[in-house]
Amino acid sequence: MERAGLSPTDDGADILIPRTLLVAFLFIGCGSVKTALPYPLTISEEGLGAIHPDTPFDQISTALSGFEFEKLSQISSDQSHTIVQIKRSHSLIAQVVSDSSGKKISAIYILSPLIKNKNHLGIGDPLPQSTSLQCDNDLCQSIDEPSVHYRIDVRDRTIREITFSRL
How many CB atoms lie within 10 A of CB 157? Predict the structure, then answer.
């Protein structure tokens, strides 16, 4: 008995390759922003994952494995900073900014919804009302974690930006 659509000499190999590729793309994805991280990264009062405020700036790329790093310079008339961009599958997930000396971490900007805080909230999630949160217009911070700042959409309290910085 012949299979419909196949010639008697065809063993289905011509169909198997496209099906295999389709299944592979469904499982792997196409390198979108939602590409999974190699391990969960949490932004907290301690910093971003293994990157802590006292991590020497030149050791950021060795503190996290499984990510791509790109070093940039930002120079203005009054100061200069070094920026390390953290990427995963060519998608920008965070930026670490040096202080003016270039040796210490000044700020960490979270740019991906894949990085969450200790309450599993990230960019795009609603920031719930809490007595431990202090908000001034669209900028909020927790009393428990004063170094982590949330910029929110004031209409629906959706987190638009997460920043770690020590004052």
Answer: 17
In a domain, 115, yes or no: yes
Is 25 inside any structural domain? no
Residue 69 domain flag: yes
Per the structure, how many domains does the chain have?
A: 1
Look up the pTM and report it: 0.75
Length of the chain: 167
pLDDT tens figures, 85-124: 999 988 999 999 998 888 889 999 999 999 999 999 999 9
Q: What is the CATH number of the domain that holds 131?
A: 2.60.460.10
Does some domain include residue 6?
no
Q: What is each CA distance from 163 to 8, 27, 63, in whole angstroms? A: 64, 32, 19
| Cα–Cα separations (whole angstroms), residue 155 to 64, 127, 138, 159, 160 | 36, 11, 10, 11, 12
Q: How far apart are CA 11 and CA 6, in angstroms?
A: 8
